[in-house]
Amino acid sequence: MGGTGFVGASVCAQLLAQGWQVMVPTRSASQARPAVAGLTLLELDVHDEAALRQALAGQDAVVNLVAILHGTQAQFQQVHVSLVEKLARACVAAGVKQVVHVSAIGANAQQPLSAPSMYLRSKGQGEAVLLRTARLSEPPAFELTIVRPSVIFGAQDKFLNVFASLQKTLPFMPLAGAGARFQPVWVEDVASAVLRSLAREPAATARAPLTLQACGPDVFTLRELVQLAARLSGVCGGRGRPVIALPNWLARLQATLMELMPGEPVMSRDNLDSMQCDNVASTALPGLDYLGIKATALPAIASAYLSVK
Ligand SMILES: NC(=O)c1ccc[n+]([C@@H]2O[C@H](COP(=O)([O-])OP(=O)(O)OC[C@H]3O[C@@H](n4cnc5c(N)ncnc54)[C@H](OP(=O)(O)O)[C@@H]3O)[C@@H](O)[C@H]2O)c1
Questions:
Q1: Least packed by Cβ within 10 Å: which of 88, 187, 209, 224?
Q2: 182 lines ligand 1 (CB under 6 A)
Q3: Mind listing the pLDDT tens digit for each residue in 99-130?
Q4: Domain ranges of the chain
Q5: Does residue 100's CB lie within 6 angstroms of at least one atom of ligand 1?
Q6: Nearest CA to ligand 1 atom 35
């Protein structure tokens, strides 16, 4: 689910390359990105539990990539919690043996409400739903892997690409959360983590749920990432625009105005709230290396796509 999105494109391509048969439910087949050749698109209201259960019949595994980054409290609840409840019940009913759920760094399944933003609180609640369902029986109803990425980069990202294009037009960069720390991870490494999670164990005796973090090898502040995007895309000969770090009150005002503009805001107040906690790996949970993945450094990959735009 959510296979039509940014991460979904890489996950589907890797699954198909490894011989999986892939079915991608989407709310609108006509608006979905050009499908990776070989997958089956299924137009479906994923919020309709009966339809979801029917779609899951006969499937060995489910990968959940459905998420929103902006919205109201009710929308976050619908997409990150209620939908996951329906998905969990549908997986049990359909006898799905493996579930990989992509969440986010900063989500906390044990104390979901302790997270600083609606996005992260609802992500933690969604994780908790799946963990509870998987543990309802012994052995677990399905083998569950929760993958928590930091911010994800790749040719189609809405992160470095946005920083680069903004600097091509603005004389300076008014930046909220300039000091927030991130550990960007390559989209292909996240996709590999999903695939290796699916390869963890065939279904006969499902193992205990696993939560792991998907982070890159390096930590950057948001200011450093903006400057890196400029350097790699050659804005002002690679020097980029002056970065003006906004104080909190001004950052909130900027975010409020962005939310009022049509389309997806570049930065919402809830995004600012998310940046109150560092978006970096903790030592408490395993990382990509647990699955045998050596995380890829950002500059070489990002320069390949930023330099040609
Ligand atoms: N991108 C990042 O930097 C990042 C960082 C950390 C974690 N993550 C997590 O990684 C996962 C994948 O992210 P992504 O960047 O690939 O997201 P994305 O490009 O926005 O794709 C999400 C997919 O979810 C589906 N979707 C969106 N809203 C929905 C709704 N209201 N009801 C049902 N389906 C809906 C859409 O599919 P259809 O339109 O086809 O229905 C969409 O293709 C998410 O869980 C996200 O939280 C991403």
A1: 224
A2: no
A3: 999 999 999 999 999 999 999 999 999 999 99
A4: 6-155+184-216+280-294, 160-178+219-278
A5: no
A6: 66
